[in-house]
Amino acid sequence: MRLDYPIASLCRSFGVSRSGFYAWLNSIPSERAKVDERLKLAITAVHKQSRETYGPLRMQPELAAQGFKAGRDRIIRLRRVLALRCKQKQKFKATTNSNHQLPVAENLLNQTFSPSSPNEVWVTDISVPQQAA
Question: What is the pTM of this model?
Answer without folding.
Answer: 0.59
